[in-house]
Amino acid sequence: MTGRRSTWRKYLQAGGIALGLLLLAQQAWQGYVALQQAQACVVRPRFLIMALGLYVVAYFVQMAAWAMIMRYLHAPLPPRAVVEGYAISFLPRYIPGSVWGYLSRNEWLAQTHAVSYSISTTASLVEAAMLLVTAGVLGGLYWLPAHYDLSILAIAGLGILAAWLTWRIVPWLVIKINIGGRRIEIDLAQEHRMRLWSATTALYVGFWVLQGAALLLIARTLCGNLVLDIVPATASFALAWAIGFLIIFVPAGLGVREWTLSALLVAFATLQPGQSTLIALISRLGLIGAELLILLIGFHGKIQKRKIQNGQIQSWGRKRDWSANDGSLE
Q: Where is average pLDDT lowest: 16-20, 149-153, 238-242?
């Protein structure tokens, strides 16, 4: 029964990845059509290439932060395994409902790296919570002082406290949850390491700053000599991502994030609505392009790994045949 259930999970995961890839391609096409209809005036294409590079770097930073979380939960993965599996296993997130990407990642971790579902689920919860907390803090650092009599240092201090509490409390809460009448057990015997929390938090802050810097480059590539500062750009993107993430029935925040980002760029950076809409559309296409590059790297790594494994199997088979023939050639 367990073997049959495992087989069905593999089929469902493969189907989810295939469907997610199709939906990703559909999003890319819809974004391209919308960009064509908006008649974007691009005068400095080299900045688009640089923005795409920043999105790729940001994706690697996100994977590094997730790898830190796995180390924190005593389930470390080699960097190559993270690059090969993180993006590919998460493709089903483009299916409406938001949870499918996390379920697919759990299945990949269980099948390939023998990571329990309780550990992988906890890692996903910590990852989502840390992204939301850091996004909210960066957005609040820009927006709150402008509308309320609040100190930036006080907001930053509260944000650091929120990130630390998230790091400590989320795993503890998961331990208390019962699924199917069985308590989830997670090995948290070792003391929480401050350096892992610090590194993970810094990586997520860097992730948002890279996203904001990419918006600056996108603005530079458009006609009109648009000027966009890094602080409002980072705050706008972080808050738009958080809002899109929380609306779970929209796959990958499609449309919601672009609309929110456009509105926030108008409010925070005093851009014109048409300009901010173009930046949001190009940003979505850049993110999709970066994900496709990461997927290609992951698929290439998997293919190379399979070739090496097949070569080792064939080499072992030849050695066995040699032994069977007492070392003599016929």
A: 16-20
pLDDT (tens digit per residue) in 311-322: 655 555 555 554
pLDDT score, position 136: 94
> What pLDDT, on a 0 to 100 scale, did the predictor assign at position 295?
87
Write the secondary structure of the chain as one string of H (helix), E (strand) and C (coil): CHHHHHHHHHHHHHHHHHHHHHHHHHHHHHHHHHHHHHCCCECCHHHHHHHHHHHHHHHHHHHHHHHHHHHHCCCCCCHHHHHHHHHHHCHHHHCCCCCHHHHHHHHHHHHHHCCCHHHHHHHHHHHHHHHHHHHHHHHHHHHHHHHCCCCHHHHHHHHHHHHHHHHHHHHHHHHCCEECCEECCCCCCCCCCHHHHHHHHHHHHHHHHHHHHHHHHHHHHECCCCCCCHHHHHHHHHHHHHHHHHCCCCHHHCCHHHHHHHHHHHHHHCCCHHHHHHHHHHHHHHHHHHHHHHHHHHHHHHHHHHHHHHHHHHHHHHHHHHHHCCCCCC
Please compute Rg for the chain using Cα positions.
Answer: 23
Give the span between the Cα atoms of 9 and 21, in whole angstroms: 18
User: Model confidence at 29, in pLDDT bands (50, 70, 90)?
Assistant: low
Q: Which two tokens stand for residue 109?
A: 């971790």
CA 26 to chain centre: 19
What's the pLDDT band for 181 if we cut at 50, 70, 90?
A: very low
166 contacts 129 by C-beta, under 8 angstroms: yes
Question: How would residue 329 be classed by pLDDT, with cut points 50, 70 and 90?
Answer: very low
State the pTM of this model: 0.81
CA 44 to chain centre: 28
